[in-house]
Design a protein that fits this description.
Blueprint: E1 2-6, H1 13-23, E2 25-30, H2 34-44, H3 52-57, E3 62-65, H4 72-81, E4 85-88, H5 96-109, E5 113-115, H6 123-133, E6 140-148, H7 164-167, H8 177-187, E7 192-198, H9 204-209, E8 217-223, E9 229-235, E10 244-249, E11 252-256, E12 261-266, E13 269-274, H10 284-290, H11 300-314
Parallel strand pairs: 1-2, 1-3, 3-4, 4-5, 6-9
Antiparallel strand pairs: 6-10, 7-8, 8-9, 10-11, 11-12, 12-13
Helix pairs in contact: 1-10, 4-5, 5-11, 8-11
Length: 315
């Protein structure tokens, strides 16, 4: 596939460019910020488009969207209308209305669409999902995912990640997106949301660039029609904190801390279950670049649900 990069605002843009060059023909990059575009193009040895219209007029068959989130809707509608396939960084858009616009364009033009939900390809997470689906702990009534890093406390996040207009928020809408789409995958659609967002960073250099005071420490608690509760915890201020995924069911529990072992507790006792590494799948981007047989879970409907969950979490 011939692909182009649309925006390099996101911190994952460089990694995506490297993967795209390995599996496809990268013909160019466009970015609204001309200095950022020039630096990225030189670093990754990719030609730069002068304008977004030049990207649309190119012979790129697919487009990797890493622009600021507030630009996603307008860009992706035009990309789809140009008949080009779309891979996008999460989240899809900042409003439900914009998510609907993108979905309509994708469906109207019958283009391939993939959103970056990398935890769904993880062997540990898939092993847990298979155990839940096999009824090994009964009906889920509790789900907790904690995923955090030290982007603020160690001051390595770029300044624009604190821009409320471009990002739509802080830690929850960025890193917390992973917990949201996993909550949806395991538990379905919540009916209630309660959030606590705070600023806990003590690194003054980071606080100086967080001029909009977007949250760097965040929790959203969600309730479901069947009584299940899900907790999505995230933040930019925690070091040396492992990823935590806990699932409580009517007959047992599962706990995973990001390694190769799952702790299962039932009436039979405590078991250490090895993660089945064979169930890991291709990353969403590699699927986009190499096949039309995209696995379930990365499509436009899942992307719309993530946007809606974030809208509710931020109310």
């Amino acid at each position: 596939m011939k692909v182009a990069l649309c925006g390099v605002w996101h911190v994952h843009a460089g990694g995506y460019a490297k993967t795209a060059k390995e599996f496809s023909d990268v013909i160019g990059v466009w970015e609204a910020d001309s200095e950022r575009k020039a630096n990225f193009a030189e670093k990754h040895e990719i030609p730069a488009f002068d304008t977004f219209e030049d990207l649309l007029a190119s012979d790129a068959e697919g487009v990797i969207v890493c622009a600021s989130t507030d630009m996603h809707a307008d860009l992706m509608v035009r990309i789809a209308d140009a008949g080009k396939h779309i891979f996008t960084e999460k989240v899809l858009t900042l409003t439900d209305e914009d998510a609907d616009r993108v979905a309509d364009a994708v469906k109207r033009n019958n283009v391939k669409f993939v959103i970056s939900y990398p935890w769904k390809k993880n062997a540990g997470v898939i092993t847990l999902k298979n155990m839940v689906d096999a009824d090994e702990i009964g009906v889920i009534n509790f789900f907790r995912f904690r995923n955090c890093h030290s982007g603020s406390s160690a001051n390595w996040l770029p300044k624009h990640f604190y821009n409320a207009k471009e990002c739509g928020g802080g830690a929850m809408i960025d890193l917390g997106a992973h917990g949201m789409y996993l909550t949806d995958w395991f538990c379905g659609e919540p009916v209630t949301y309660k959030s606590v967002f705070t600023n806990a960073c003590i690194n003054e250099d980071a606080n100086v660039i967080n001029v909009d005071r977007v949250e760097d420490n965040a929790v959203t608690v969600m309730g479901f029609a069947n009584g299940c509760i899900a907790i999505n915890e995230t933040g930019f201020v925690s070091k040396h904190y492992p990823c935590v995924l806990e699932i409580g069911g009517s007959t047992g529990s599962l706990m995973w801390y990001g390694g190769d072992t799952i702790i299962k507790r039932t009436e039979a006792g405590v078991e250490e279950i090895k993660v089945d590494e064979s169930v890991a799948t291709l990353s969403p981007l590699k699927q986009f670049l190499t096949t039309d047989d995209i696995l379930p879970g990365y499509g436009i409907e899942e992307a719309k649900r993530l946007t809606h969950m974030m809208v509710e979490a931020y109310k």
